[in-house]
Design a protein that fits this description.
eleven-stranded mixed β-sheet; about 40% strand; single chain; about 180 residues; globular
Length: about 180
């Protein structure tokens, strides 16, 4: 029997990697480890029903709650996500499948800044459904995020994020402390 045909590459549209995310059962332990490597400080946010609207999980209304931490490293953002509570999420599934072992669970692309609706259409045309999504509320503006079901095909989950032009970070904590002014 001949080997399976190798698909020709589709037209690229993912753009630049903007974020790498580590999913963990302990965001503090993971932040401490990254701080030892010179990554940080971290902004720490809570994703709950009060801060994220339009939550969806595998095509149904979502109830996920997460502790989410961000540290900028040049043009790349390191993200840490820890599921909290009993809500269903890709992150909780990922930890459960790996016996609570932390690791890189997804990467995010800017999709050349095309509108989110176009990103979703393009991913659907390539056979990738939205697996988890929501709209994070900023102090001003919103951030729409969508995780696509790419893990079986690509070995990890791909995310895309779209900030409104008027985005301002919502209230958050700094860990271990705010960055020093230069």
């Amino acid at each position: 029997m001949p080997p399976p045909a190798i698909p020709s590459p589709a037209t690229p549209f993912l753009g630049t990697i903007t974020e790498v995310c580590i999913v963990t059962p302990s965001h503090v332990k993971t932040m401490d480890g990254l701080l030892r490597l010179g990554i940080g400080p971290f902004q720490v946010f809570n994703f709950t029903s009060a801060t994220v609207s339009a939550r969806r999980f595998r095509g149904e209304p979502g109830d996920f709650e997460l502790r989410v931490c961000f540290a900028k490293q040049g043009d790349l953002v390191f993200e840490i996500m820890q599921p909290v509570g009993s809500g269903r999420s890709l992150m909780a599934e990922w930890l459960r499948e790996r016996n609570n072992k932390e690791g890189i669970q997804h990467i995010a692309f800017d999709c050349k800044n095309i509108p989110m609706a176009e990103r979703k259409r393009e991913m659907l045309a390539r056979g990738f459904e939205p697996a988890m999504e929501g709209v994070w509320q900023g102090r001003k503006g919103t951030c729409t995020f969508c995780f696509f079901d790419t893990e079986a095909s690509a070995g990890t989950v791909f995310e895309s994020i779209e900030f409104s032009d008027d985005w301002e970070d919502p209230e958050h904590e700094w860990y271990p402390e705010p960055p020093q002014e230069k």
